[in-house]
């Protein structure tokens, strides 16, 4: 039986129903805590679901919000501001997904993709909450990151009681959650294993591996041997370990073993599920986490019902406990759940914060302004210019850099190109592309490009990033357009060493005005520094798998090889 008691949050008294048991259709029960005001009456509920543990989320009542680079920042405290939810007269219901926390059942694969559908569990959870005497039958959802993905997964099941959702900082394309341009991103390891500023998943008996469930021991040995042929994986102790001992971290094993996109990731991809959602949805994300913004926009475009999109300012990481965006969220839910005519739907559907001018532009669609794609060409003497190079490679010889593997050096080589200072403000909003003609002396490398707004006083702020594993260079010719390249990532094609290839990197969506006196600086490397102006704002493990072999890179930018950036200049700039 659930424990019913009260707690104090400052001067506010909150009633807590602790350890509720929520039945699923297969007989498994999930655990939940419900927070509400002390007056005994039915209220609408905001539900938060994740494997991070409901007890952890209660720290929102006792821990002041932490921003990176605070060492107390914990990426898994994401269910929202409990006291604020109660103050706004909602019930805050925080549940443990099956196989986690105090819930029963087992979890198979990331997002339970190999077991009972999390959408099915979310449906049952939502309808149970709606039927309780302390709920008035109307439900929304709350929470960022994993909690945000769960909102789309739940809404796609169309539970009748779910009236609207508000997702801040969600993860959508599941392949891009771990592989950026085909390059493995190590941050999900932290969420799963509890490393580097994340308390991690609260699973009771681990997460069972889909790979180990589906393949024989001999098949697994063959697949592991094949994966270890990648020198990047072979040189990284954590991956080497998990491939040899998969039952230590079975979910991470599955991800490490599936480096290509396809059915494994697409089965329950929230971007695909978005087309099934017809309730009102507001998607919000701050700039600086480009791959997530890409997925946010893609999901937004597929939604069928009333919808809003808001892109907030840099820096990328919200507080933990998560407290931001609650004003927008309660305006949304007050309108759609409580029926309060607050004018929220009279405002434009899309709002975008533009760095530089620090103004917000609004429109009915993304991008919020018409854009003209223009090229900035890489030129000799590390310059970026609107004019292409006219000389051939025999005179405009290539730039280059050699990167030793990080097993033998701590130095990450970075080469850069810069514009002259702009004389007038120039606004850019949208996606972009980097067309790079590169010769390498190995079958593979990483290409990591970061664009910076460089200020005259020496400071700089990240504009956007682009990632591409060289063996993933194939483009989807049907979906790719000028300034918006799309890579299928369904196969790896090794590079012929010594050949010049054109690599087209997708530059993730951004919005910024380059002010007079500022410059655009493009940096290229095949690894990334662990600490700089941007990475210091990310969780400690939020970097990409380094290249495990020595590679010499030659970047051609001559008349026959027009290496360039294709950027989204708003019309009139």
From TrEMBL:
SUPFAM superfamilies: alpha/beta-Hydrolases, Galactose-binding domain-like. GO terms for molecular function: dipeptidyl-peptidase activity. The keyword Hydrolase applies. The keyword Protease does not apply. Pfam families: Peptidase_S15, PepX_C. Keywords: Hydrolase. Residues 330-566 form the Xaa-Pro dipeptidyl-peptidase C-terminal domain. InterPro entries: AB_hydrolase_fold (IPR029058), CocE/Ser_esterase (IPR005674), Galactose-bd-like_sf (IPR008979), Xaa-Pro-like_dom (IPR000383), Xaa-Pro_dipept_C (IPR013736), Xaa-Pro_dipeptidyl-ppase/CocE (IPR050585). PANTHER family: COCE_NOND FAMILY, PUTATIVE (AFU_ORTHOLOGUE AFUA_7G00600)-RELATED (PTHR43056:SF10), PEPTIDASE S9 PROLYL OLIGOPEPTIDASE (PTHR43056). NCBIfam families: CocE_NonD. This is Xaa-Pro dipeptidyl-peptidase C-terminal domain-containing protein. It comes from Homoserinimonas aerilata. The lineage of its organism: Bacteria, Bacillati, Actinomycetota, Actinomycetes, Micrococcales.
């Amino acid at each position: 039986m659930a424990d019913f008691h009260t707690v104090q949050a400052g001067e506010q008294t909150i009633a807590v129903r602790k350890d509720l048991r929520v039945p699923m259709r297969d007989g498994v029960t999930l655990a939940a805590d419900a927070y509400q005001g002390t007056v005994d009456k039915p209220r609408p509920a905001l539900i938060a679901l994740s494997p991070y543990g409901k007890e952890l989320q209660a720290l929102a009542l006792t821990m002041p919000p932490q921003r990176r680079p605070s060492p107390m920042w914990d990426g898994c405290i994401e269910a929202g501001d409990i006291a604020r939810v109660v103050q706004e007269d909602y019930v805050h219901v925080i549940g443990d997904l099956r196989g986690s926390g105090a819930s029963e059942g087992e979890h198979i694969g990331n997002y339970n993709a190999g077991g009972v559908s999390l959408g099915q569990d979310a449906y049952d959870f939502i309808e149970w909450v709606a039927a309780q005497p302390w709920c008035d039958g109307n439900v929304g959802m709350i929470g960022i990151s994993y909690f945000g993905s769960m909102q789309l997964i739940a809404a796609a099941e169309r539970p009748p009681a779910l009236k609207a959702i508000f997702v801040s900082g969600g993860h959508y394309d599941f392949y891009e959650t771990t592989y950026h341009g085909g390059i493995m991103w190590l941050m999900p390891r932290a969420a799963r294993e509890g490393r580097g500023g994340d308390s991690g998943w609260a699973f009771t008996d681990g997460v069972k591996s889909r790979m180990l469930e589906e393949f024989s021991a001999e098949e697994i040995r063959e697949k592991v041997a094949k994966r270890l042929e990648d020198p990047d994986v072979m040189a990284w102790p954590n991956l080497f370990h998990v491939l040899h001992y998969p039952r230590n971290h079975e979910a991470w094993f599955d991800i490490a073993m599936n480096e290509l996109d396809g059915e494994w990731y697409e089965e329950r991809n929230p971007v695909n599920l978005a087309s099934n959602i017809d309730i009102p949805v507001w998607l919000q994300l701050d700039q600086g986490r480009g791959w997530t913004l890409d997925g946010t926009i893609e999901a937004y475009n597929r939604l069928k019902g009333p919808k809003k999109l808001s892109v907030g300012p840099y820096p990328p990481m919200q507080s933990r406990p998560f407290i931001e965006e609650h004003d927008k969220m309660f305006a949304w839910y007050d309108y759609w759940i409580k029926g309060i005519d607050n004018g929220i739907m009279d405002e434009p559907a899309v709002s975008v914060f533009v760095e530089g001018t620090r103004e917000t532009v609004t429109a009915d669609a993304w991008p919020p302004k018409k854009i003209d794609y223009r090229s900035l060409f890489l030129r000799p003497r590390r310059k970026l210019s609107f004019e292409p190079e006219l000389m051939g490679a025999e005179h405009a010889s290539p730039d280059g850099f050699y990167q030793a593997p990080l097993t033998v050096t701590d130095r990450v080589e970075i080469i850069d190109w810069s514009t002259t200072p702009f004389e007038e403000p120039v606004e850019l909003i949208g996606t972009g592309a980097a067309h790079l003609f590169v010769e390498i002396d190995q079958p593979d490398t990483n290409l990591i490009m970061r664009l910076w707004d460089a200020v005259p006083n020496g400071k700089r702020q990240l504009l956007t990033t682009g990632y591409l594993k060289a063996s993933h260079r194939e483009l989807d010719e049907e979906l790719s357009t000028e300034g918006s390249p799309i890579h299928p990532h369904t196969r790896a094609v090794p590079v012929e060493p010594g050949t010049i290839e054109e690599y087209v990197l997708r530059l993730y969506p951004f919005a910024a005005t380059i002010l007079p006196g500022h410059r655009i600086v493009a940096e290229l490397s095949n690894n990334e520094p662990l600490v700089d102006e941007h990475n210091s704002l990310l969780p400690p493990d939020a970097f990409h798998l380094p290249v495990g072999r020595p590679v010499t890179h030659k970047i051609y930018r001559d008349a026959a090889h027009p290496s360039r950036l294709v950027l989204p200049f708003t019309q009139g700039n």
